[in-house]
Amino acid sequence: MANVAVYNMEGKEVGTVELNDAIFGVDVNEHLLHMAVTQQLANNRQGTQKAKTRSEVRGGGRKPWRQKGTGHARQGSTRSPQWTGGGVVFAPTPRDYSFKLNKKEKRAALKSALTSRVQDNKLIVIDDMKMDEIKTKTIANTLKSLDVNKALIVIEADNKNVAISAKNIADVKTAYPNTINVFDIMKYNTVVLSKDALAKIEEVYA
């Protein structure tokens, strides 16, 4: 099992914690990571784009000039795609881009993402991330002392003060153990976990 250092909110090392190899020590499956990220981005697409084909554009019912004898190329409608104001050849239409991944694939991808962060030394555990008041400066100073700039902070669900305090910091996002996903883990440079959130993750995903 891998051991990682545990820090306090002042950035000082206060101990170590042993990580569960079933979550943080698996073989990294890059294909599943790619599929999970692609799925999340596809599922977020609205799919509401629309353009009109030549059959939907208003007008163009009359042939603009006779077939022969004018010196022009033959034309059947002023709403053909080559005309200004004409229809689009392969016009996009509203569609659903979402697709499904199996539960086992999702879970394996999440474990691969967490393992990759451990392997890259980009996973930090903080002993106690409790805050009595909402104060953005406290979180900013904590991240600065840990030398972290683009971070995903995972906290327990009842820790609202930390979530609100981190909301205004650029390139920082907070999540709960049951809302973490592969896209966020891979997007942010460092994953910062509270010790309680780590325990919850090991409980849910082991």
What can you tell me about this protein's structure?
- The protein is of the alpha/beta class.
- The chain folds into 2 domains: 3-45 and 99-205, 3-Layer(aba) Sandwich (Ribosomal Protein L4, Chain: A), CATH 3.40.1370; 47-96, no CATH class.
- It has 7 helices and 6 strands, in the order ββαααβαβαβαβα.
- It has a 6-stranded mixed sheet with strand order 2-1-3-6-4-5.
- Strand 4, helix 5 and strand 5 form a beta-alpha-beta unit.
- The protein is elongated.
- The protein starts with a strand and ends with a helix.
- 24% of the residues are buried.
- The mean pLDDT is 93.
- Residues 60-71 have a biased composition (Basic residues).
- InterPro entries: Ribosomal_uL4 (IPR002136), Ribosomal_uL4-like (IPR013005), Ribosomal_uL4_dom_sf (IPR023574).
Topology record:
Elements lengths: L2 E5 L5 E6 L2 H4 L5 H15 L58 H17 L3 E4 L9 H10 L5 E4 L5 H6 L6 E4 L6 H6 L2 E5 H11 L1
Parallel strand pairs: 1-3, 3-6, 4-5, 4-6
Antiparallel strand pairs: 1-2
Helix pairs in contact: 2-3
Keywords: Ribonucleoprotein, Ribosomal protein, RNA-binding, rRNA-binding
Subunit structure: Part of the 50S ribosomal subunit.
Family: Belongs to the universal ribosomal protein uL4 family.
Concise structural overview:
The protein has 2 domains: 3-45 and 99-205, Ribosomal Protein L4, Chain: A (3-Layer(aba) Sandwich); 47-96, no CATH class. Helix content is 33%, strand content 14%.
